[in-house]
Amino acid sequence: MKEKGYKIKKYDCPVKRYCQTMDLKDNQELIAKYKECHSKTNSWPKVREEIRSIGILEMEIYIERNHLFMIIETPLDFDWDVAMKQLASLPLQIEWEKYVSRFQKCTSNSTSAEKWKLMERMFYLYD
């Protein structure tokens, strides 16, 4: 439940975080199907493996109406540009991106890096 907050994973190494945003088509039926295809039982396990294979430790997607917010955690030496090029070349990832594009405000042949827009951190509370 969102009011109780979400536990975060602890790692044995320092990590950095990337935040991205994207909009879905503003259609409640499509949004429900998008959420369903990302559930533990319906998401593609091999796609999860491919995402981890490029060095991503954790990925979370949050939703408010048709607005998505993604948090990605990686080791400090992670190179975003190199990893996104590698991800875009993985066969199952290409298939997944095409499959989910019907729910998203994008073209069907867009890569993950083209769909999701990196966000700039403008505030943080810790020192």
From TrEMBL:
Lineage of the species this protein comes from: Bacteria, Pseudomonadati, Bacteroidota, Bacteroidia, Bacteroidales
Stored InterPro entries: Carb_Metab_Mutarotase, Dimeric_a/b-barrel, Rham/fucose_mutarotase
Domain of life, per lineage: Bacteria
Name used for this protein in its record: L-rhamnose mutarotase
PANTHER family reported for this sequence: UPF0734 PROTEIN DDB_G0273871/DDB_G0273177, UPF0734 PROTEIN DDB_G0273871_DDB_G0273177
Any one GO molecular function term: racemase and epimerase activity, acting on carbohydrates and derivatives
Native species: Bacteroides oleiciplenus
Pfam families on file: rhaM
